[in-house]
Amino acid sequence: xxxxxxxxxxxxxxxxxxxxxxxxxxxxxxxxxxxxxxxxxxxxxxxxxxxxxxxxxxxxxxxxxxxxxxxxxxxxxxxxxxxxxxxxxxxxxxxxxxxxxxxxxxxxxxxxxxxxxxxxxxxxxxxxxxxxxxxxxxxxxxxxxxxxxxxxxxxxxxxxxxxxxxxxxxxxxxxxxxxxxxxxxxxxxxxxxxxxxxxxxxxxxxxxxxxxxxxxxxxxxxxxxxxxxxxxxxxxxxxxxxxxxxxxxxxxxxxxxxxxxxxxxxxxxxxxxxxxxxxxxxxxxxxxxxxxxxxxxxxxxxxxxxxxxxxxxxxxxxxxxx
Amino acid sequence: xxxxxxxxxxxxxxxxxxxxxxxxxxxxxxxxxxxxxxxxxxxxxxxxxxxxxxxxxxxxxxxxxxxxxxxxxxxxxxxxxxxxxxxxxxxxxxxxxxxxxxxxxxxxxxxxxxxxxxxxxxxxxxxxxxxxxxxxxxxxxxxxxxxxxxxxxxxxxxxxxxxxxxxxxxxxxxxxxxxxxx
Lengths: 322, 182
Ligand code: SF4
Fold this sequence. Notes:
The complex is a heterodimer of chains A (322) and B (182).
Chain A: H1 3-38, H2 48-58, H3 67-86, H4 100-121, H5 125-156, H6 161-170, H7 174-177, H8 179-192, H9 204-207, H10 218-242, H11 251-254, H12 256-283, H13 289-317
Chain B: H1 14-27, E1 30-34, H2 43-47, E2 59-60, E3 69-73, H3 78-90, E4 96-100, H4 103-106, E5 128-130, H5 137-153, H6 158-164, H7 166-177
Parallel strand pairs in B: 1-2, 1-3, 3-4, 4-5
The complex binds iron/sulfur cluster (SF4).
Iron/sulfur cluster binds next to loops of chain B.
């Protein structure tokens, strides 16, 4: 590969990641507006989160703990960017490999762990409680989520994201073929995004925003970019697994037009997934951590197990092979 | 007196950088309300759907590290003052202070009390006072808009004053506290 090619490639990657972060910030702003309208308020303008990030990054920051604390926001942001690079957004994928569905599971944990590391290093008891809750929550939603992934892998007979997207395009979207698993995955997604019934780790009224408690100024700005990235990451994960990743036209036959159309469809789909989460978020109170744990290991796990059985019966006994 | 450094001095002129910074911090004031005295009662209507301060980008934050705006809502006892100073010093520059009601202005109802301070401005710089006992949510919204205008015009410079006259503020504080660690 020549230097020019590499340059073009890296510019494209940077543009994609930058766009993803911008979309995340926009989505957070839209969520604030929608929540305000549900609560019969006017709400901030939808570009409010861009102003917030700008303000935080322009602030003077004089918080001193130790180097792990300084390092954590970078770690979280870099982790989320890496995970985004592995995830096909609108069919375009920057890094790939075989079996990347399993790899992705590991990469998604990196930003959260970096974040936990930093808040632990601040030695604030609230942060400690928040981190513990976050890890318990992770343990609880990963159970149904892994069952869902297993169902997908059995049904589509692949552990590669690009193959999964191709098969969904040529056969049927995951949500049509495996609706029960999709339901379980959406419930797990609510916990993954830490939206309202499951916003236990960052409960501002109980533990003063938990892991975020010592972060301020530029650190908080970086963490806001991280959470914008993870909004896109988590919604895209659902869209890639169950809604075909927004791929409607095959890039091999339609060329550049296909990329543009796919990107727009992907955008619409993650918007729908995000809106479902926001609506649920706007009307629910918060679970306690042990309630969340019990809930996740009971209902979504049962639903996901039924979905797994359905996938197994369909592919092994009925011979439906996409 | 140091200011927040310009990230791209060669591209953005220093004056424009200050302006950008003021414009951003004006539209996104994150506040922490220190609920002393009676004033906290007026905050819920200001936050919720009746007056809705989120439309100006003002939201309550949980910790002083994340906040830009400190609200002192009512009379300040000597014990409370120490916590207020601690909270104020933990906030990141630029930071602003609004004080509520007549008690932090001149003692108000508690003018002859043995354990409240009379003037908050002697201990931390206050950018804006809201008079009244208690100020209604309309007055609070008005104060927020006035503060936003002040920030825009560069007149809300309490945090610079606190740095410049730190010794004097600290001397005033120590006159009340006697000891810092009790
Ligand atoms: S000004 Fe009035 S309402 Fe406010 S703290 Fe003083 S006595 Fe209470």
